[in-house]
Automatic annotation (TrEMBL):
This is Palmitoyltransferase. It is a multi-pass membrane protein. It catalyses: L-cysteinyl-[protein] + hexadecanoyl-CoA = S-hexadecanoyl-L-cysteinyl-[protein] + CoA. It is found in: Membrane. It is an enzyme of class 2 (transferase). Residues 127-252 form the Palmitoyltransferase DHHC domain. Its main location: membrane.
């Protein structure tokens, strides 16, 4: 299998800046550990969010089961379950339809001058060999540690929808969490500095014995929801832009951005399919996954 190798330094006396075997082993070990820890973190945060919503937020914000509040409770619960169902569903679809190329079973051997020593190795025809997945990936974009596999042509749509619904779930939980703190502990968030100083003040109050561990944990989750929501929203915007350009993150990193060959509408259609509206509301397959022949 032919490789596109990085150029050898022009000066023979100048050593190539290549990582040692020990550095490679250490970094690979860290990446493999992250590949295990990230999914555990995601499922733990999902379970905690579910418990907070139904055990604390809904009973406190909607305490009286009269007709108007019952309708509001049902609406809020339906929106929350819809976003979480789609986030988990697209997460599973991202793993179920991996981006591995079924026609490439040979594991390439790196050249001594290969610059891609740890992450991925560029091959021909928009293929990469991922050293974490140990597979050849068709039109590889990046390796997602939260799913434990690579994102490429076959699962890009599911990854983007996963980012959208995860961001919505986190931001929605953040709003409900702020409402819960306002009603339960009379904390006013009219001043923007309140949220910025909430975590350090809550940590100090916790060690002073003023607030409980549950209160501190809820405050910490507010920042977790904000962080995950912003990161997923940023990933989503970046990936949609790259898809519209017909490019991948790997190509951009390698400086291989080329003139757009197809209109952005066709590029989006290749990823999201013709039934893209259905994909917005349900984690279902909307594009063909066995179309490698078209990319050769």
């Amino acid at each position: 299998m032919t490789h596109l190798l990085s150029p050898v330094p022009s000066d023979p006396a100048e050593p190539a800046c290549l990582p040692s075997n020990a550095d490679m082993f250490t970094r690979m070990l860290k990446l493999r550990l992250l590949n295990v820890v990230a999914p555990v973190y995601f499922f733990t945060a999902t379970a905690v969010t579910f418990v907070f919503h139904f055990c604390f937020f809904v009973p406190t914000i909607f305490p009286v089961p009269d007709a108007p509040l019952w309708a509001s409770t049902t609406l809020h619960t339906a929106l929350f379950l819809f976003s979480m169902f789609n986030a988990l569903g697209n997460y599973i679809m991202t793993i179920r339809y991996p981006a591995a190329s079924a026609g490439d079973s040979t594991v390439p051997v790196c050249s001594p001058h290969c610059s891609d020593k740890v992450d991925a190795h560029y091959l021909l025809n928009d293929r990469h060999f991922c050293k974490l997945c140990r597979k050849v990936i068709l039109k590889r974009d990046h390796h997602c540690f939260f799913t434990g596999n690579c994102i490429g042509q076959k699962n890009m749509r599911y990854f983007i929808m996963f980012c959208i619904h995860t961001s919505c779930t986190c931001m929605y939980s953040l709003v409900l969490g702020v409402a819960f703190l306002t009603m339960e502990y009379s904390i006013s968030f009219e001043d923007p500095l309140t949220f910025l100083t909430l975590l350090p003040l809550s940590t100090g109050y916790f060690f002073m014995g003023t607030i409980s561990g549950l209160q501190l944990f809820l405050v910490l989750m507010l920042y977790v929801w904000l962080g995950i929501g912003l990161v997923c929203a940023g990933f989503c915007c970046q990936q949609v832009l790259l898809v519209a350009r017909g490019q991948t993150w790997c190509q951009m990193q390698q400086g291989r951005l080329q003139e757009i060959q197809s209109p952005w509408q066709n590029n989006l259609k290749d990823v999201f399919g013709t039934r893209w509206i259905l994909g917005l509301i349900l984690p279902v397959q909307t594009v063909e996954t066995c179309s490698e022949e078209k990319q050769d």
